[in-house]
Amino acid sequence: MKIGSLTFSNPLIMAPMAGITNLPFRRIVKEMGCALVSTEMISANGLIRHGKKTESFLESIPSEHPLSVQLFGSDPKTMAEAAVIATERGADIVDINFGCPAKKVLKNGAGAALMRDIRLCRRLLTEVRKAISIPLTIKIRTGWIPSGEEAFALTQIAEECGVDAVTIHPRTVAQKFGGISDWSLISRIKEKSTVPIIGNGDVLTPHDVLKMLAETGCDGVMIGRGAVGNPWLFRQSSDLLKDKTPSPVTLDMRKKVILKHIDYAVEYWGEYRAALMLRSLLPKYVRSLPQCGRFREKVVRVTTKQEAVDGVCDYFDALRQ
Fold this sequence. Notes:
47% of the residues lie in helices and 15% in strands. It is built from 14 helices and eleven strands. The mean pLDDT is 96.
């Protein structure tokens, strides 16, 4: 897969997700074979104002590159300035969010709200494209109506403005993350597009990856919620793409990755804040295993790294017995 000047070892991409795709999480999925990782959605307004919290989303390490930085906003000049900042901070790709359905984003005219104003979309993309030389991508939805007319129109404008790839999450704004994504829209846009098209939506298993590639003809597959607590999805998908049998996820393997994630979290946030973040993260790693409820009851109260480690070790020791 290629995006602009960048070539990737496989077509597997981690979706940007608020509160999820932080540096510790990105390190884990990268080690599991994800070809391209992305930051959380970053406010362009916050970035140009040099907000401390906003700028922290740009923190990175060499091993996770290539890295895509996703920005949201609605003012063309602000978006262009933020894209320059992201580039200066080491972004390999700038991605613009045209699909977020969250009310707090929509009310400011950003995210999926932009798909209602195609002229503004053109101005925004033109300004950002002039401001940066690295690959520029966008992430869109079906739009506000099920027909997908807005998605077709925005994809065409993106191509004309020099965008290097388009990711399509084929759900309407009203659907948010419910219902079923319409993969046929990805296929129809791919047929008419001259830039790489990345499919997103309802990819929960390695076989879903192969199915999306086969059914839509897309160039890349973006994986979102399916990888939360299941980073092995990337490695298993990569195995299938190489005509290999996906490696099973053993208890020892699962425990090792969880402990590594704890280490990365403490390294990034410090012990106390990491413990608070781990309270909601750790249960996701074991939700398919026996006695996961007991594990959750224990880890939702952790306040130190050692408590988190002990909780994980005790749980897996009990499973083996």
